[in-house]
Amino acid sequence: MIATNIKLKKRSWQGAAEVLEIVDGDTLKCDVDLGFKVRMTTNVRVHGCNCPELPTPAGVRALAFTQTLVRPGEVVQLDSKRLDKFGRPVCQITLADGRDLATLLLTSGNAIPADSSGNLDPTKKGAGEQPGPLFPNTPQNTAWK
Question: Which pTM value belongs to this model?
């Protein structure tokens, strides 16, 4: 038996991933480098925000906005936070230019804040709670229905 003093406080991972596809406003399909020549292709959700679903008009706009920020073939940095209810990693995503994807989605009005479990967080103030073209009636916005 091998003794070790290593203790993991939380299950998290940080590393690089190549974007293969922008699935929707807050989901990227990535080729993730897990280290030791191990790779995995998976859909990665953006941590801290939630975009409207496709095919709603607001969801289409959120997808188009994300496509202006990141393109297939670009490398992003991932910092995993948890797995969502579908088993997808939820990560803080840092773009190649150093900007945070969730922050850009929130400040542009293309997303609303989500808490650490991914639920919409009514206690946080964000772009999604302000009147605007994507979320004029938030939190009762019809784009979310």
Answer: 0.76
